[in-house]
Amino acid sequence: MTRIAALVLLSHWRRQPVQLVTLILGLALATGLWSAVQAINGQARASYAEAAEQLGTRELATLVSTTGTIPLDRYVRLRRAGWQVSPVLEGRTKLGGRWVTVMGVDVLSHPTMTWLRPETANVTPDAILTPPGRLFAHPATIAELGTVPSEVPIVQAPNVPAGIVMTDIGTAERILQRKNQISRLIILKSQPRDLPALSDVVPDLTRISPRPQDAIARLTDSFHLNLTAFGLLAFAVGLFIVHGTIGLAFQQRRPMFRSLRALGVPLALLSRLLLAELLGLALIAGSVGLVLGYLVAAALLPDVSATLRGLYGAPVSGGLALRPVWFVSGLGMALFGALVAGAQGLRNLFHLPLLVAPGQQDWLGMTLLRMPWMAAGGVMMICAGGLGSWMIGGLLGGFVLLAGLMTGAALLLPPTLTVLLAWAARLGKGAISQWFWADLRSQLPGLSLAFMALLLALSTNIGVGTMVSSFRLTFVGWLDQRLAAELYVTARTDRQGRAVEEWLAAHSQAVLPIRYAEGSVLGQPTRIYGVVDHSTYREFWPLIHATPDVWQRLADGTGALINEQLARRAELWPGDRIELTPELTTDVVGVYSDYGNPRGQVMIGLPTLLSNFDGVAHRQFGVRVPDQQADALADRLRQQFDLPASAVRNQAAIKAGSLAVFEKTFVVTAALNVLTLGVASFAILTSLLTLWTLRLPQVAPIWALGLTRRRLLWLEVLRSTALAAMTVLLAIPLGLLLAWILLAVINVEAFGWRIPLHVFPLEWLKLGALTVLAAVVAAIIPARRLLAAPPSELLKVFTNEN
Amino acid sequence: MMTDEIGAENPLLRVENVSKTYGSPGENRPVLDGVSLDLRLGETLALTGESGSGKSTLLHLVGALDDFDAGEIRLGATNLSGLTDRDRAALRRTQVAMVFQQFNLIASLTVAENLRVHARLAGREDQSWLIRLTERLGLTDLLARYPEHLSGGQQQRVAIGRALAMRPRLLLADEPTGNLDEHSSAKVMDLMLELVRDAGSALFLVTHSNAIADQLDRRLHLRNGHVA
User: Minimal Cα distance from B97: which residue of A?
Assistant: First the structure.
């Protein structure tokens, strides 16, 4: 009996292949976008963990200095006292024209040397330890560096994290020009007993405990949360399709359920079979979704890697590994989605009267009578979002606010459209016009889910588009301010840097050294810049808040500027005090915008920096020179010091590079945005296609009353267009509200900066036109059947007793 | 669950003082009020009455499709009151078959599949009986079609074939020819009676038509919920 009943249930899909494809594709799209985001996040997090593991930083405590550099004698002192520590020297340098992080370790004592084996086993210890030494880098890093010859041979080491070059500490000292310097000391696991206290041996060093979560992972959490939110949104939009399709399939099979029950199939068995069918379809759709997700993730991962490297310096390998947890979570989401979408159908089955044929208008159980409840639910969701955001706060609170707003707005859409249509119906004078608006209103319950999906996708598109465009506009203006110098120079060594500075002093209007030390503010790594007193800063530096005498205070050494990120995170504003080292505490005299940088940053006067921090590199400069002389000066500078082209860059090249990084940052967001909109358009198409079977009995009487089929077709198209246009109009204010939340709440929490909102009406117009076009196409495909249908098909409505 | 103790003394169907009320509390509308009847295996019984007299309701109660408020209905040795949904389903699957006025064919199954479905659910598929049914009902050329491509008369013949394919002990028919013209109606009725006899079933038929009722062994008239 079970097998026969199952075959009967499944026979529905044989007769409704479009519905089956729609259901599977809808769920597959939803699962696919979600899985893509999870695959990207999983890969990135695995890369961070792998990097932390390979660099030996995961489970071991370290010693650092507040001045950023540990003198060699501290290391010697610790070793003599019996402490087992391993030195690391880390710094940025240019190799082959590209900036890389060089990490020098003591190969004999470093706790994790997996990067040396097994691919690199043919390199002898002698070759590593004696000049010129060897550099070890991931093949992807080597490919990025190009074929420019390096003083030190580079060896391929797939275990080294991307974007990092590993080497012996002696070689690193030479490359980084930091003789006898150590960035940090790793405290090894096995230590002798009865050691003297660290505070007695090296009182000026700070012990940093092993971190439960790697710093990069923590830093990039906001980025991944953003992606996850987008993935969830895409999943929700996909679920609208599935919900609609499953709802219709349940509705269409109600006569079958009644027949089966009349033929003796128990309700419990019928329910179990439908549940099994739902789960089976979900597994198929989930599997298709996983394949889609993998393909989307593989296509997007290179851009995500570039974004994470550019924005956070986070190493993410370009390859996508398949993880069991990813499979399980993808299929789990598909099953969950199918159950959510089918829950109402299954519930209705239990209340299905065995003897009464229900009407088809309430096929989603969403009749016009329910509209006031939906409106109340929508208002409640928005209020709950606001309340939740206020109670939870932070980034999560921001997302709760967004979720409440979006869900509430989606619930409010059908009641709002009902009111608008009732208002339009009152304006209609002729019989056709009155029928059109009344019919449109009666169709609303069946189309609501698709248009709710469209509203979500459109408002997200407007919101995210507004955010990105506002960001771009602000960023371009900010770059103009921040990159005020005409040329930027990087010397090979500090010695060459001094020579370059002297030469430039005689050949330019001004030389602005770019010098910094790595420090720590409130326990967070912070880069501290020292600047000279020059009018360029006064005129151009992008200050958000400042005391009137800000530049004078900086020059006097009595004040510090901090970036917006640090100001917001640490709640430090002009007038507050900031401790940069135990010996250096100063006033905050201003806050400047610093887009694209997740870390805190401080600016103090150059003399103050040099007197408080050791080993400050002296190799980078900004050069002020009249615009028309910049290129000529760059050429002379290269010739004079035999510098590669990349060592002297003009302002335009750097701006172009920065903008390229900026564009890459949002490429994933843009891709997900487009995909979500595509899924929503698909929802409309599938809704109209699946509703068509119910539509004929409503259109046929009008045809019989004398309307041509062609006219009916155009009315069908107009119906879809009118709903799409109304949805677009409602999506604009919602999208702007979303943009405001993204800019004023989410971005501030996630990145630490706030940007002004700009509006782009032309973009809305384009989006609106595209949406209406999609709605027209979606309506024409099923409505064409009206033209093609023979009169007998329409007459069946009047003659078919079934 | 059920035993076969049916003979001259033990009718197949016994309805005793059955009452049924529709409506909400405080606004009850009695449909059946103390109805009694019985039906023996191989016997055919017509139930006539005005619209709303409770004919279809009684048929649904006998078919274990609905609950009654008072009285007793026995099908063979089985008392229908107090049966679980599973037991009622088993009864419908194996003992009783119904022919509805609206046919209630399964739209996604072909004629051949519709004809077999009840017998297969009952685990009682008899290929030679099915072939005979198909031929007698004139459905041989229509086996691959779907219900939507059949006329009303053809659909009704499929519904009758489906019901008789599992050789039910009791066939319940609710206005089985109500949607057919007079000529088709007579043909369908003749066929149904012939096949019911061949199947050895009892027939309990609800109809408005005196002509149809006259073709059956016995007839009862229902008026305002009472057997007149």
Answer: A263
CB under 8 Å, gap of 24 or more: what pairs does A493-498 form? A493/A177, A493/A619, A494/A177, A494/A617, A494/A618, A494/A619, A496/A619, A496/A641, A497/A617, A497/A618, A497/A619, A497/A620, A497/A621, A498/A618
Contact indicator for B144, B111 with CB cutoff of 8 Å: yes
B23: buried, middle or exposed (CB in 10 Å: 19+, 13-18, 0-12)?
A: exposed
Model confidence pLDDT, tens digit, residues B124-177: 888 998 999 899 888 999 999 988 888 888 888 899 999 989 889 999 998 888
Q: What is the pLDDT of residue A589?
A: 93
pLDDT at B186 over 70: yes
* Contact assignment for B102 to A354 by CB distance below 8 Å: no
Q: In chain A, what residues touch B94 (CB-CB under 8 Å)?
A: 264
Whether A802 sits inside 8 A of B89 (CB atoms) is no
Q: Where are the domains of chain A?
A: 1-53+235-354, 60-209, 487-624
Q: Would you say A26 and A328 are in contact if contact means Cβ atoms under 8 Å apart?
A: no
Task: Choose among A258, A264, A802: nearest Cβ to B89.
Answer: A264
Residue A112 banded pLDDT, cuts 50, 70, 90: low
Instruction: Return the number of CB contacts < 8 Å for A and B.
Output: 88
Instruction: Give residue A225's pLDDT.
Output: 65
- Chain B residues with CB under 8 Å of A8 CB are 106, 108-109, 113, 117
Q: Is A261 on the interface with B (CB under 8 A)?
A: yes
Residue A1 touches partner B, C-beta closer than 8 Å: yes
C-beta of residue A217 within 8 angstroms of C-beta of residue A48? yes
B123 touching A (Cβ < 8 Å): yes
Please give the backbone phi and psi of residue B206, each rounded to the nearest 5 degrees, phi first. Answer: -100, 130
Is A582 strand, coil or helix? coil
Instruction: Evaluate if residue B2 carries a pLDDT over 80.
Output: no
Coil/strand/helix, residue B12: coil
Per-residue pLDDT tens over the stretch B72-82: 999 888 888 88
3-state secondary structure A153-204: CEEECCCCCCCEEEEEHHHHHHHHCCCCEECEEEECCCCCCCCCCHHHHCCC
Rounded Cα distance between A792 and A517, Å, is: 84
Taking the CB of residue A73, how many other CB atoms lie within 10 A of it?
10
The kind and range of the H/E element at A8 are helix A2-15
Asked if B121 and A263 come within 8 Å (Cβ–Cβ), the reply is: yes
How far apart are the CA of A262 and the nearest CA of chain B, in angstroms? 7
Place of tokens 């928005």: A382
Q: Which of B104, B117, B120 sits opposite A255 (nearest CB)?
A: B104
Three-state secondary structure call for residue A58? coil
Domain ranges of chain B: 13-227
* C-beta atoms of B94 and A264 within 8 A: yes
Query: Coil, strand, or helix at residue B54?
Result: coil
Query: Cβ contact (<8 Å) for B107 and A15?
Result: yes
Do A1 and B93 make contact, defined as CB atoms within 8 angstroms? yes
* pLDDT for position A503: 92
Read off the pLDDT of residues A410-427 as tens digits, 9 standing for 90 and up: 899 989 988 888 888 788
Tell me: pLDDT of A561 over 90.
Answer: yes
Tokens read off for A648: 């002297």
Residue with tokens 């199952």: A6
Strand B202-206 relative to strand B44-49, pairing: parallel
Q: What's at A403, amino acid-wise?
A: A
Residue B6 has pLDDT above 60, yes or no: no
d(CA B133, nearest CA chain A) in Å: 18
CATH 3.40.50.300 is right for the domain spanning B13-227? yes
Question: Does any CB of chain A come closer than 8 Å to the CB of residue B155?
Answer: yes
pLDDT at A363 over 80: no
B108–A14: do the CB atoms touch at under 8 Å?
yes
